[in-house]
Structures are given as structure tokens and as C-alpha cells.
Amino acid sequence: MKVKIAESAGFCFGVKRAVESVYKEIENNNEKKQIYTYGPIIHNEEVVKDLKDKGVIVLDSLEELKNVTSGIVIIRSHGTSEDAYNVIKENNLTLVDETCPFVKKIHNIVQEEKNKGRHIVIIGNPVHPEVQGIKGWAGSDSTVIETEEDAYNFKIDDNKKITIVSQTTFNYNKFKYFVEIIEKKGYDINAVDTICNATHERQAEARNIASKVDAMIVIGGKHSSNTQKLYEICKKECNNTYYIQTIDDLDLSNIKENSYVGITAGASTPNNIIEEVHANVREF
Asked: Is the dihedral of CA 86, 89, 92, 98 positive or negative?
């Protein structure tokens, strides 16, 4: 069996930096302060469980954050809203901000454009923490668009100027398509491609590999937006595409011997899981 692993598979720069930061805080926590992450540090259950075992507490909401009066709060790579920063400051908590620079750039863009009086359109998943954080900086005069139907139904005052940004892990072709739909409505539009370079590369490589193989395996957490996008892209190119979280989900019974198998993984997938899947596929 021939196996091809995507070079871009696994932790991206922002996720790697955030995860390493938590372990560094654990190691250097001489004052024994309680360490919190605002939301799971990444969308990977194995990593989150390991951090929990080491005493890290996940805060899942702004209300939970408000009740914390001491300790260290780590902002994950997804970033968060302006309100969360204000609470951390008001409660005199130690802030470790690991917001991905690509996400931080979007926060700055939407805040600046909002101050110019422009309506902000965010293309992405409305329940994803990154999008919720961006919306927190964009304010109430903003709209999240996730689907083609959302784009077609979008309507605001004709005189209102619009700035469009994207979730960093959104499908690039979908982003362009949705922008084209909105442009046809005749609004004054400033569209900014804020999909990060790592996502561009990961999606392009996954598409290329999936178009050549007999079976494609996509590894990542079930709540990982960028992994879901990879699966969608690969499934279009290769019907035999499988979405797994760990080796326990891997069923090789549908893959024939002597097949050409491709493997890619989302930005929240640790290398040890990728290597474990790779080893099992090769043994098979």
C-alpha cells in the first residue's frame, strides 16, 4: 500500500504556539496560581484532557470568567471578544494572550472599519469561537454569513458601506463565491481575504492529494472547523474519504490492498496521532 501524508498536516503556527504556552505556564507556575483557558485551548479532546489532568480549568463562558477573581487566564488562538479582555482587566487576572496573529489582524480590521461607520460582514460559522470573537469586536452593526442562502438573503440599507472579512479557516472558494453574490447586490464593498496562509496551503495540498488517491483519511477533532472544511474538500475529489479523530475511529475494511492512500489532518491534530494513523495504514 502506498501512503502519502500531507506536509501541512497537523498543528499550525498559531495552535502550536498556544498549546506550548499552556504547558510553559504549568511548568513555570512557581506561585501555584490556578491556570485557566478561555475555552478549550484547541479542538482536540486528547490535548484538552491531558491539560485537565495537569490542573488546567476550562472556562466556557463570559459568566464563568466573571466569577474568577485570581489566577492566570490564557486566551486561545481563536481569540475572543473585547468584553472578555475587559473582564480580565477588571478582575485583575494575569492575561496570557495567545490569539493567532492572523485572527488578531481581523480584530483590528473590523474595529477600524466599524469606527468608519461600515457594516461588517463575517463569512464563517456563527457558533465557532473565532467568529464569535470577531463579532465581539465588530459590534452590533455586523452580520455573519455561513451559507449560500445567507449570502442571497443578505440585505441592508442601500446607502450603507460594507466591509467583508472571513473566518481564517473558511473554504477559500466558498468565500470568493459568497463575496460575488453580495457584490451583485450593488453595495459599496471592501472585501478583505483574511483566510490565513496555513489554511490556503493545507486546503490546496489536501485537494491535490485527494484527487490522486484511492482513499483519503482526514484526521481532526469533531468540533474542528478547519478539519470539517478539509473533509468537504477531499470528499469532492475522492469519494472514499474518511473523517476520524483518533486511531480508534479508523476502519480499514473498505480500503483495498495495494491502494494509494492519502492522509491529512486539521490544525488541532497532534503529530503523534498522525503518526499512529500512518503506521497502522502502512501495516495494513
From this structure: positive
- C-alpha distances (whole Å) from 90 to each of 34, 83, 85, 87, 195 are 18, 11, 9, 5, 33
pLDDT in tens, 185-203: 999 999 999 999 888 899 9
Instruction: Note the pLDDT tens digit of each residue in 204-236.
Output: 999 999 999 999 999 998 888 889 999 999 999
Q: Is 113 a catalytic residue?
A: no
The x, y and z cell numbers of residue 48, run together, are 484538552
Separate counts of helices (H) and strands (E) for the chain: 11, 12
pLDDT in tens, 116-141: 999 999 999 999 999 999 999 999 99
Catalytic residue among 113, 130, 146, 205: 130
Report the distance separating Cα 244 and Cα 249, nearest Å.
Answer: 5
Query: What are the cell numbers at 213?
Result: 488517491
Kindly give the interhelix angle for 225-237 and 197-210, rounded to the nearest 10 degrees: 30
Distance CA 82, CA 9 (A): 32
- Are the C-beta atoms of 216 and 210 separated by less than 8 Å? yes
The pLDDT of residue 250 is: 87
